[in-house]
């Protein structure tokens, strides 16, 4: 089995676990994300607007927006790193690629803390995304410029014992679930 096939199989299994966790959790399953972000008040932060069955960081992002800049990812081109446009609760949004929503007006910032959506994660800080490499390219570029804290946000059920990884896959610094906070 090739690495691509291994990743596809791991994604498929993780999507099933995430869907079940999402159905069981109900709204507001944010876990300790707000408490983690409270330690970074005023630091430029990037979150995300959840799609499909992703756990929602919106409540924690709204709290953080009262203290400093919060942005969400914007896909500017295939194969490119993400850009992050300033977001505020109830901001006007427009359609983005892959079913995403992005701020109506682009106002890009460089985050120092990035909340990373994911499909699966491990206790050693590995993450499996959707396969486009957007967050891997983005984290690599941000880390080349200076310190950045990459916080994976997911349901505990998305944990995997191991994941197929390649050298370009960027590790997480922390994972926050609805039940726990794990630092690496």
TrEMBL record:
It catalyses: (6S)-5-formyl-5,6,7,8-tetrahydrofolate + ATP = (6R)-5,10-methenyltetrahydrofolate + ADP + phosphate. One of its GO terms (molecular function) is 5-formyltetrahydrofolate cyclo-ligase activity. The keyword Membrane does not apply. It is an enzyme of class 6 (ligase). Its EC number is 6.3.3.2. It comes from the Bacteria. Its cofactor is Mg(2+). GO terms for biological process: folic acid-containing compound biosynthetic process; tetrahydrofolate interconversion. Keywords: ATP-binding, Ligase, Magnesium, Metal-binding, Nucleotide-binding. InterPro entries: FTHF_cligase (IPR002698), FTHF_cligase-like_sf (IPR024185), NagB/RpiA_transferase-like (IPR037171). NCBIfam families: MTHFS_bact (TIGR02727). Belongs to the 5-formyltetrahydrofolate cyclo-ligase family. This is 5-formyltetrahydrofolate cyclo-ligase.
